[in-house]
Amino acid sequence: MHDPLGFVQEFEMERVWLLVIIDVCTRAVLGYHLVLAREYSRYDVIKTIENALEPHRARRFSIPGLAYGPHDGFPSQRLPELAYATWE
């Protein structure tokens, strides 16, 4: 990683956490957050919830020929009315 001064800093990661919010009925992933730390915190959980509520933006892939299929992606990509949707 690059530090604020622009120098490259190498470090060993102890754990990688993948926090995911999944819709129970459809089994669709609504949002996720990747944590590169020993433990995740409440702020990481909040970030996961934010990512589930915000509309998902499609990523640009650097591998030639790799792309989203016609039925791939997050629900908020396919159905714009699901952006910022909440439940009771």
Q: What do you see in this structure?
A:
- This protein has 88 residues and is of the alpha+beta class.
- The chain has a domain at 1-57.
- The protein is 18% helix and 15% strand.
- It has two helices and two strands.
- It has helices spanning 42-53, 75-78; strands at 17-22, 29-35.
- Strands 1-2 form a two-stranded antiparallel ribbon.
- A hairpin with a 6-residue loop joins strand 1 (17-22) and strand 2 (29-35).
- It is globular and about 45 Å long.
- The termini are far apart.
- The model has no long low-confidence stretch (mean pLDDT 88).
Summarize the structure.
The chain has 88 residues and is of the alpha+beta class.
Number of helical stretches of at least 4 residues: 2
| Overall average pLDDT | 88
Determine the oligomeric state from the structure: single chain
In N-to-C order, the SSE pattern is EEHH
Strand order of the largest sheet: 1-2
Total beta strand runs? 2
Spans of 5+ residues with little confidence (pLDDT < 50)?
none
Q: Nearest-angstrom radius of gyration?
A: 16 Å
Helix and strand content put the structural class at alpha+beta
Q: Which terms would index this structure?
A:
2 helices; two-stranded antiparallel sheet; alpha+beta; 88 residues; 15% strand
What is the secondary structure topology, with strand pairs?
Elements: E1 17-22, E2 29-35, H1 42-53, H2 75-78
Keywords: Membrane, Transmembrane, Transmembrane helix
Organism: Caballeronia glathei
GO molecular function, one term: nucleic acid binding
